[in-house]
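Example 4.3 (complexes with small molecules)
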Amino acid sequence: MQVGLKVWRFNSRTGERELQEFEVSAPEEATLLDCLDIVKDQHDGTLAYRKSCRMMICGSCGMRMDGAAVLACKTRMYDVAQAGHVPVISAMGNLPIVKDLVVDMDPFWEKFRSVNPYLQPGYDEPPDGKEHLIRQDRMNAVHKEALCINCGCCVSECNAMESDPLFLGPQALAKGMRFVGDPRDGQKIARLEKLNGEHGIWECTRCYFCNERCPKGVDPRDAIAKLGAESMKEGIDRDMGAKHAKWFVTSAKTTGWLRETELVPKTQGVVSAIKQTRFALDLAVKGKVPPPFPPHVAKDVKESRRLHDLVRDRGRSGFDGIVQGEHALAMLAHGKGVGDETLEEIYERPGAYHRPYIDGEEIPAGSEGGMGSLTQADVTPGKQPTRKPGGGA
Ligand code: SF4
Ligand code: SF4
Ligand code: FES
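Answer. The structure with iron/sulfur cluster bound is encoded below.
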């Protein structure tokens, strides 16, 4: 097949940029990386890009295709070529470009190192002095995070990093969760304290681009949500973001609505609220502020309260709650049309995954099902790999 590519070339010494077009003959199974190899072999040996494994495991070949981060060795070109489309290939975002498609990964590795990406002592030694045995369901809580190959595709697309380059970012935070959620690690609270600091978890704008672009199904935004939930469970809630989230829970429970007008006094305090009176009045004049009194109570507020009590009574706080929610959503993604079936009924289907376990519940043998991403294959160790809608390897 004939594949056309427009490649942004960049020379950091001269600052020159140029969009260069190539057309290559490639076999039908060729990936973007194969096509770049052909360009380098046969057209222009000066083209610079990174690669190593060619099988989606080393994380070297992150770049952008038509403005979205991809692993070049995972991106098949057949459909693109058949459509007659000529994609624009450029270097990843949020990292300085060294040459053409090669970025400087130093800031990335610096943040990676800052979360101490290794088990830290402080845990109980196994009583028999042998290895730590960990239940599969406990490891499922960090299974997705452990799949990260440090490619940087999530960082490339993170808009919080665009506004604050010091923000730890999705990859480092997902790695943080990998160890916060590991029962063998002895520094959970110290880790959470650090991740709640400036440039930490609460700076995320929840745009979900990192989930969308991660080629391995790590879902870094979900990891950040787990860190936030676990922080609040442990009473680490000094950040405005944590206060914000807590107020929304109270608001949803009491009225069934998110009462944003009370957000500032409830999270930033009365003094800050008074300082912003002028801004609030301007909004009110434009009809953007509903009258706070009497508070509007939703007709079905009892549903909202029941949900709140269910989460509380079943101990679904902290990252366990998020993991169970993830699991339920993944099960629904497998559900092929839910119709009138309840989630419990879906779990009872022959061969279905088991219902998420409830903290403290005895886990039936053989029911430690996987926890794959909504959009990627589920590759939980010991489980049959599955392919989900829109998913890949
Ligand atoms: S969800 Fe948060 S961490 Fe992920 S890309 Fe958006 S701002 Fe960045
Ligand atoms: S979280 Fe995903 S996108 Fe980000 S570095 Fe890891 S594998 Fe790459
Ligand atoms: S070359 Fe290793 S992930 Fe693409």
